[in-house]
Amino acid sequence: MSRLIYPNLDLLVYQLREGFGDDEATLKANHQAFWQNLPEELRNPTPLATHADNLSASALSIADLSFRQEAEAPRLDYCELLPLANLSKSTYPFPEISQGIYPIQGYYYPVRIEDTYALLFDCYQNDPHGIVDIKTSFEALKTVASNKTGNLGKIWLLSGILPQDLTDNLQQLAQDSYNALDLGKGEVKPAGKFCGASCFEVWNYPRRWQSIDENIHVLIVFFPNLETAKNMANAYRYWLRLFAYRSKIIWAYLQTREIKRRLQDSYKIIFNLAKTLNQLNLVGYENSLQTLAETLSSYVQNLNYLEIQLNTLKVNLYNYQKTLKDLSEKFPETQLTELSHFIEIVKEKYQAQIESDIASLSPGLRVLEDLINSIRGKIEIQRAKSDRNLNYIIAGASIGLAASSVTAALLSTQLDEPEEPISLTEGFVWSLSPILLFVLIAIVGWYRGQRRRKSRETDD
């Protein structure tokens, strides 16, 4: 049986507060989604007399008051949210829960890190004897923590103190700890040291890149004694920041995969339209032009989004690297090799892939613009031909009218006055006959011209 002293589970949950171009309604929706992870009494407009220092604002909920006060916070690169709502502490305990053999205790610690909300949900079993079975303990702790969610994902931190008689085969102990969470298959790897404690990691990165829930990341730390275990709580600020930046990197790359799919779909529209251009008439050209104009607007927008997410990835990678360095310098005997290796993966794979996508998809803009210009040219030619044919008909009608006038004039000067007067209707009909003749000739000429044009297009 695998055992640990004081096993502890920390769940780090991340929710994007403000994305590019988000309006006020989206900000409030993100805020509400994040606070759904906290107790109901913090979300309802009920005075918390045992925690609030100033109850004059108790008409609002703690969550709403915190949201209002964020704009006035002196620092938003790391801002504790509960004190913004006039609570005396930055953490909020939850009532003792009976789950498993021993009761579970813990607390909530919500913060804002720049444009991201972060929640540390800390829970542990209050075992008077200390040493407990790993499987039983972590299963119970996971049951309490698993309903916490965020659109940037979450990180699991498992920790505990090693019994004195257990000094070897720590990797198997870490594997047993991970298996107790039941998060799917995962291979535990050594991840370095934190304050001299042995660290292990499981990272199942997204395979399909369709949902942030595909990303499973667990860090496991085994402390040699109680004194070194206290460093875990002292490092929470660093852990929250470090994994916030890492979560934003994964999220940004996930966004680029969806953007790339949209760009590829647009390119299919372009390709399919290009194949049918020679089969279209004037109306078809005009409809295609409208479709391509809309596709061009979407294509440009998505290319810009791709570059925005590339910049997001670079900024958060820089912050991740800096925070990891600060963590190593702040706490002696800390060398987190696997977390450092993530930097190389991002640079060589994720960043390089996005840059390659931008380079390969950007020429699609030129294709779109050339296709639009080509269709505009064809539309102008078609309209010019239509206008010319119409001019032929008008000209024929004019010639016919002129000829009828001349005929009428000649007849009036050469014919003797009839014995019986010609009726007005009969004279009008005879005067129209030259007009009708010339109109008929013009229509026949236009029809033959149309047939010759279609014959040439078919041959091409």
Helix and strand composition category = alpha+beta
The helix/strand series, from N terminus to C terminus, equals EHHEHEEEEHEHEEEHHHHHH
What is the oligomeric state here?
Answer: single chain
Please give the alpha-carbon distance between the first and last residues: 81 Å
Calculate Rg over CA atoms.
Answer: 38 Å
Low-confidence stretches: 49-57, 389-424
For the sheet with most strands, the description reads: 10 strands, mixed
Number of helices: 11
Residue-averaged pLDDT: 82
Shape by Cα distribution: elongated
Explained architecture:
The structure is a single chain. The chain is α+β, with helices and mostly antiparallel strands and 460 residues long. The chain has three domains: 232 residues, no CATH class; 112 residues, no CATH class; 65 residues. The chain is built from eleven helices and ten strands. Strands 1, 2, 3, 4, 5, 6, 7, 8, 9 and 10 form a ten-stranded mixed β-sheet that branches. α4 runs parallel beside α5, α7 packs parallel to α9 and α8 runs antiparallel to α10. The longest helix has 52 residues. It is elongated, with a radius of gyration of 38 Å. The termini are far apart.
